[in-house]
Design a protein that fits this description.
Layout: E1 7-10, H1 12-16, H2 26-38, E2 43-49, H3 61-66, E3 75-80, H4 83-91, E4 97-103, H5 106-113, H6 117-133, E5 137-143, H7 156-167, E6 174-178, H8 185-199, E7 204-208, H9 215-224, E8 229-232, H10 252-261, H11 270-284
Helix pairs in contact: 2-11, 4-6, 5-6, 7-8, 8-9, 10-11
Bound molecules: zinc ion.
């Protein structure tokens, strides 16, 4: 049986934007973050502290962190890949939670982080310890948990072994990411259920890309299987520079429409999300892939 509420984690400022060729101003990123907060987001992946040569869109990470609204009720997450990134994020004094990444296959781990899959688990555990040592928390995401652009199928046993090793380090949650949008609902239901049983009481978060149109079905199945947090991106923006063919994240407004209409609370304001999706389309100068923002309002306000 599914839960009555889930948490949305807004990832547009980082995962949404990082693959965009056109550099978006720090001011526009901060406006997006402010709009997400106004729409109800209480956890936001605001930037990543990575090599600016590898990801030019995130070169202003320190400036974004410095400009974040002072909000006790909002958790700001900075993605980091290694100790140096973690040091940078913690030094800002504005990042509440580090986001670490462990990659399920060797070839993707080497392309993404220049280390093996096991090496990425060790690096993630070290980042979690670093956050804790600085009085902060950390979450971790298992990337390519449902399939790899280079190696193809990813066995559930591999993901379970990684989840067990990562859970020992004490992250606030473990995320399962369908980085390249190949997951199907049956696979999602199984893997979320198994990881959830394995790492309880640590909650499970999920991260889906809608590359093959299975994003929302996967969200539904993940919620049914007990995932507590859903990553989503306003407008359905998103991709990964190291994952060929990866397209947008599931759109925040589409996820909220589906869940709220089905009686599952998200704490989000759908009208404000749709408005922000339209605004973001003007910033990006194109129609964004999210669907609810392009459809008539339903039901009509009485
Ligand atoms: Zn992603």
């Amino acid at each position: 049986m599914y839960t009555k509420t889930v948490e949305l984690l807004e990832v547009a400022p980082r995962d949404g934007l990082q693959n965009e060729k056109t550099l978006i101003s720090t001011e526009a990123k901060l406006a997006l973050i402010a709009r997400a907060i106004a729409a109800g987001a209480r956890r936001i992946e605001v930037t990543s502290f990575v090599n600016p040569r590898a990801v030019p869109q995130m070169a202003d990470a320190d400036a974004v962190a410095a400009g974040l609204p002072q909000r006790e009720d909002v958790t700001y997450i900075g993605l980091v890949m290694n100790q140096r990134g973690a040091e940078r994020a913690l030094a800002t004094g504005r990042i509440d939670q580090l986001g670490a990444v462990a990659v399920a296959t060797d070839r993707f781990a080497i392309a993404n982080q220049n280390q093996t899959s096991d090496g990425s688990v060790e690096a993630a555990r070290a980042i979690i310890a670093q956050a804790q040592g600085a009085g902060r928390t950390a979450q971790v995401t298992i990337a390519a948990a449902f399939g790899c652009p280079f190696e193809g199928e990813v066995g559930q046993e591999r993901v379970l072994a990684m989840a067990a090793a990562l859970a020992e380090a004490g992250p606030v949650e473990i995320g399962l990411a369908d980085t390249i949008g190949v997951a199907n609902p049956a696979h999602v239901g199984q893997l979320v259920g198994r990881v959830r049983n394995l790492i309880a009481p640590i909650p499970v978060r999920v991260h889906f890309h809608n590359t093959r149109g299975t994003g929302l079905a996967n969200v539904w199945e993940a919620v049914t299987a007990g995932a507590r947090t859903i990553d989503a991106s306003i407008g359905g923006l998103g991709g990964c520079p190291f994952a060929p063919g990866a397209s947008g994240n599931v759109a925040s407004e589409d996820v909220v429409y589906m869940l709220e209409r089905a009686g599952i609370g998200t704490g989000m304001d759908l009208a404000a999300l749709v408005d922000t999706s339209h605004w973001l389309g003007t910033i990006m100068d194109r129609t964004l892939p999210g669907m609810v923002a392009r459809a008539p309002v339903f039901p009509k306000a009485s």
